[in-house]
Amino acid sequence: MSDKFLVPIDLAQSDTVQNPAAGVTRVQAFTDGSIRTISSAGVQNNLTAGSVSMQSARLTATQANSTVTPAVLTGHTFTIPPGKTALINANLAATAAATTTGIALGIRVAQGAGANGNAQGSWFITTALTSAAAATALEDGDIYNVAAGANALGEVLGTATTAGNNAASGTAIVRNTSTNANTTVTIEFRSEVAGSAVTAQIGTSATCVVG
Amino acid sequence: MDKLLTYLDIAQEDGTQNPAAAHSRVKAKTNGAVVSRSPAGVESTLGGSLAIFFGSGARVGTGLEVIPGTTFTLPPGKNAYVVGLGLASGISVSGGTTTFGFRLQQGAGANAPAVCSFEVKLLNTGSGGAAVADGLRNAGVLSVAAGATADAVTTRNSTFGDPSGNKAVAKITNTSTNADTTVSLVRQSSAGVAAGTASAYIFALIS
Question: CA triplet A206, A207, A209: central angle to 5 degrees?
Fold first, then answer.
């Protein structure tokens, strides 16, 4: 049996399929167990430095809610596995049945039953107060600290007077500190006025980056 | 012995033992990235790294202080998209000012600065308080030279000692090739209120 030849892997650099450039990028193992690429300029990228996943959702049909009870936007349910942290961004575009009917955007965090740690984090939501670009919006934020089997909703209701409102955006950072249960994040919306519908528009979307 | 510089062609397979006819190629780009390229020409960059920080800390004094647990290192040549949220104490105190945002420190001897574009907003509402219409916003750019420190923050007079709903967003680049950039969340409450728990959270994507 021959001795092992332990060598780095050198890859030819190329920005096209068939024509390599003059430089070389090396794939090399380090004593800490990582595997990195090293460019000819010495820039390193760690190929083994953890993982990132992104979940996303987008409305492909309008969705109405004529109640003051929050409803989950179709498809806007995200899972944060045990020990992971997520950055959530949501954008709601909506119309209202009346100019005096406002819209609310909410980010709800639910911790799995039997979880041995809480879901913790913070949220910040902005809801416009007019249907055209303007300098007025209602904003709020707070923290999450959700125990097993419980849930908490961060929400901002844009009250409407004569102009209506049609847009809201929200950001949240949520960490699942448990080791045995998932955290579930849902993006929700509702009407300000019972019996007067708000309709989320196609293109309303959210992303959840988990690492 | 001459080096053999090559691409790495990997058979495509969706979980069975029978490879598909097409192959994906793993190759290097001139910017140092390694990508996989499908027969249709779709490229995905391999590698990269993610840093996530969770910070909480007790109220300490009235100075502008780093929030414990929210400090991370940005290596040379790296970019970070950073979001900071939070700071809710459950304690309301009238008067004073509140400051929140990011602190950048460029390593001594760095051969180029750390640069940053940022936006920070503070609301005048306490923990569990009502939504308000008077968020105070500051946005701008910073360039932090070797050995220097700069803060990307917003300050406001607050009815509440530690308003909820603080939000800071920044894109930070360490343009040096030989030193790290240190990034932290910072806060200050000049109200001098009794000790409490201030919770702040930072999420950073680094590539």
Answer: 160
Residues 151-210 of A with CB under 8 A from B: 156-157, 171-173, 175, 209
pTM of the model: 0.77
A52 to B166: CB separation less than 8 angstroms, yes or no: no
Q: How much is the ipTM here?
A: 0.73
CA distance B23 to B184: 44
Q: Which residues contact A73 (CB under 8 A, 6 or more apart)?
A: A57, A59, A63, A92, A186, A187, A188, A189, A200, A204, A206
Residue of B9, B38, B52, B83 to mutate for A, most A C-beta atoms under 10 A: B52
pLDDT range class, residue B25, cuts 50, 70, 90 = confident
B70 at interface of A, judged by CB pairs closer than 8 A: no
Q: Which residue has the higher pLDDT, B135 or A104?
A: A104
Looking at the partner chain, which of A45, A50, A175 has a beta carbon nearest the beta carbon of B33?
Answer: A45
